[in-house]
Amino acid sequence: MALEEGYRGPQVCKIAGITYRQLDYWARTDLLRPSISEARGSGTQRRYSYTDLLELKVIKQLLDAGVSLQSARRAIECLRDNIGGDLGSANLVLNGAHSVLAWSDGEVVDLLKGGQGVLNMVLPLAGVVEQLDAAITEFAGNQPAESAVGSRRAAGGGG
Fold first, then answer.
1. Cβ neighbour number for residue 156 with a 10 Å cutoff
2. Residue 104 and residue 79: Cα distance in Å, rounded?
3. Which of 12, 57, 101, 155 stands 20 to 30 A from 49 (CA)?
4. Comparing 54-58, 138-142, 155-159, which segment has the lowest mean pLDDT?
5. Residue 12: pLDDT band by 50, 70, 90 thresholds?
6. Is residue 119 part of a domain?
7. CA angle 58-64-66, nearest 5°?
8. Which range of residues forms the domain containing residue 74?
9. Is the separation of the CB atoms in 76 and 36 below 8 Å?
10. What's the chain's Rg over C-alpha atoms?
11. What's the number of domains the chain is made of?
12. By C-alpha distance, which of 49, 56, 63 is closest to 79?
């Protein structure tokens, strides 16, 4: 699958484990808009990149863990600010009203020692990346015309 093609809405929902209603709502409220292409009228589709899928998977895991949509929104903004790093080796730390990426266990400990607010959650992104890659591989196995993992690598996905 060429990088420009990306992933369509139904593919994204299956891979990320979300409903189309969630995907549509998050696009309309600017939580996560497709980075490859927006739907432009009847007959067109949104196209999402690997990075979009990663963000959706993080949102889903945060919501499943009981984090509010507002806190998930802040966490995704933090993730976007640091997307250049190897996310597979980072931990997303929700600390009170703030979200930060900690690149080592030592940084997580420092955040805990800092006592800034209440630690709500630590999400190891390596697990999210592994789950996403497995879901893409499984999806690609059911779709012979697609080479999803190849496009993931081209999109700059870690792993």
1. 12
2. 16
3. 101
4. 155-159
5. very high
6. no
7. 110
8. 7-83+128-149
9. no
10. 16
11. 1
12. 56
